[in-house]
Amino acid sequence: MSRPVALSEAHVLEALAALDLWELVPARPAIRRTYVFENFIEAFGFMTRVAMVAESLDHHPEWSNVYNRVEVVLTTHDAGGVTALDLTLARRMDAFAQNASRRSDA
Amino acid sequence: MSRPVALSEAHVLEALAALDLWELVPARPAIRRTYVFENFIEAFGFMTRVAMVAESLDHHPEWSNVYNRVEVVLTTHDAGGVTALDLTLARRMDAFAQNASRRSDA
Amino acid sequence: MSRPVALSEAHVLEALAALDLWELVPARPAIRRTYVFENFIEAFGFMTRVAMVAESLDHHPEWSNVYNRVEVVLTTHDAGGVTALDLTLARRMDAFAQNASRRSDA
Amino acid sequence: MSRPVALSEAHVLEALAALDLWELVPARPAIRRTYVFENFIEAFGFMTRVAMVAESLDHHPEWSNVYNRVEVVLTTHDAGGVTALDLTLARRMDAFAQNASRRSDA
Fold it and tell me: Which of A29, B50, B94, C50 has minimal Cβ neighbours within 10 Å of its Cβ?
């Protein structure tokens, strides 16, 4: 398929309005969110489901994990910015997180 | 820890009364359940969470997967029957399955 | 992409000649192999890598796992037989299994 | 089991001599290593095997992943430093990484 093109910041901000808890990364053209789960098992179960989607899309997150926390940064290196692929992956991640045991504060 | 001992069939049946959709396997001292998820990703996400618990308990399921279905058989080979370990693992599996997208018929 | 077509049994047998340890399933148009790993962690690590490929191909195995053993059956239901997709997935699985700790008898 | 105690820096350095490519983190009492694999599937397959061990040990890494790279930091928060648990987990991780397809530069 054709590679996605970077969206304008205005377009990204508009998309983020419908992506609760996602925000622009200050210093670079990327979006980020932190997920907090009940424990490590839930966090890694989430990551495994995301991994299968990421591989299918051939579009992978930058992410880190400490116990029950998963911090995700999404950007499309080839396009030099946030693209429709990032928004797709963000929406899939949010759907997975809703089907996991989460802490009430996240 | 000390190895668990096989429970009597009466004890297992009593425990199954609180484990919805689990049943005795006809030909051997084991219990089984089939889970049906929304798709492969949910099924394998479930299996990954179970895998971490199974490894922690050093007690592993016999299980098979075809797309969105996961069939599980639990028994404790060392004890020659169903033990408290199997019931623990069954309860953990059920809790994970509740935090996954499932088909309405399962 | 266009869906694959079932290969003739002669064609499948020819392909199996290059797929060590895979064989035809007697009663149905499918191929199978059993992998034996060092332990459960290696077996499930193998399954996780396969899961990402399976989801990417939108082609999933029938498989079962008991501790360090993984039994795999591949067929393409839509095509009513073994197709090029099954051979692709079999080759990927074999490559993953070579990068895992395996028992010497498998 | 009893909780581990923090090792002295001299003890940690001695242990690191046998843990190739691991190093002390400059600003905190922790050790770190970066693994580079062939691709995302190998990186995440590695992480899945580590996850099962981490959960079994009830000792989890701080780690981040970008495509084929996995950066790991190990420390024992309860003990305020590097403990025998961290060295155990580091050794298990190294063993898993040897059974994965890796880039030649890592």
Answer: B94
Tens digits of residue pLDDT in D69-103: 999 999 999 999 999 999 999 999 999 998 777 66
Subunits touching A (CB < 8 Å, at least 3 pairs)? B, C, D
Token output for B59: 């007690």
User: What is the layout of strands, in order, in the sheet containing B23-24?
Assistant: B23-24, B31-36, B69-74, B62-66, C62-66, C69-74, C31-36, C23-24
pLDDT tens for B50-102 read: 999 999 999 999 999 999 999 999 999 999 999 999 999 999 999 999 877 76
Domain presence at residue C104: no
Inter-chain CB proximity C42 and D49 less than 8 Å: yes
Q: To the nearest whole percent, how much of chain D has pLDDT over 90?
A: 86
- Name the domain count of chain C: 1
Question: Does residue A106 belong to any structural domain of this protein?
Answer: no
B-chain residues near D51 (CB < 8 A): 52
Instruction: Give pTM, 2 decimals.
Output: 0.94
Check residue D2 and give its pLDDT: 65
In a domain, B73, yes or no: yes
How many helices and strands, by DSSP H and E, does chain D display? 3, 4
Residue B4 lies in a domain: no
pLDDT at A100 over 90: no
Please give the residue that has the higher pLDDT: either B88 or B1: B88
**Residue B30 near residue B77 (C-beta atoms within 8 A):** no
C-alpha D52/C-alpha D58 separation (Å) is: 10
Chain C residues near residue B48 by CB distance under 8 angstroms = 44, 48
Q: Which domain holds residue A14?
A: 9-98
ipTM of this complex: 0.93
| CATH for C83 | 3.30.1360.20
Residues of B with CB under 8 A from a CB of A: 40-42, 44-46, 48-49, 52-53, 96, 99-101
Q: Are A33 and A72 in contact (CB under 8 A)?
A: yes
State residue B2's pLDDT score: 65
Residues in A lying within 8 Å of B, measured between beta carbons: 40-42, 44-46, 48-49, 52-53, 96, 99-101
